[in-house]
Amino acid sequence: MFSSSSRRSHRSHFRRRGATETGAENKKAIELTNARIDRVVEAMGRKLDTVIDSVNKVSTQVQVLNSKLEDMQGKPDKSIFRTPIVRQ
User: Fold this and answer.
1) Which domain of life is it from (predicted)?
2) N or C: which end of the chain has fewer CB within 10 A?
3) Distance (Å, whole) CA 21 – CA 57
């Protein structure tokens, strides 16, 4: 049979092989996790771009409305802004 030192060497070999396989499995799991995280980040980036575009459109609409209101206030329409004169 095997001597005690031979058995220790044999067990040690399997431990190293197991550790190597475990390391390779961990590396693969990390790579898969990183790929999933990348996909989530890309999806969030696209959604953020959509939100930014929408906010920019609303901002533009507000600026246009503000400009129209300023124009109306700067050039009052006599029929709308006529103040009656009251004499006593």
Assistant:
1) Bacteria
2) C
3) 54
- What the block records as the tokens of 61 is 């609409």
| Total domains, the chain | 1
Rounded distance, CA 60 to CA 44, Å?
A: 24
Instruction: Note down the domain range covering 72.
Output: 4-81
pLDDT tens per residue across span 24-80: 889 999 999 999 999 999 999 999 999 999 999 999 999 999 988 888 887 655 555
| Amino acid identity for residue 34 in this structure | N
Alpha-carbon dihedral 51, 70, 80, 77, rounded to 10 degrees: -130
CA–CA separation, 62 vs 66, rounded Å?
A: 6
> For the chain, what is the radius of gyration of the CA atoms?
38
Residues 63, 55 contacting (CB under 8 angstroms): no
Q: Is 88 among the domain residues? A: no
Q: Is 86 within a domain?
A: no
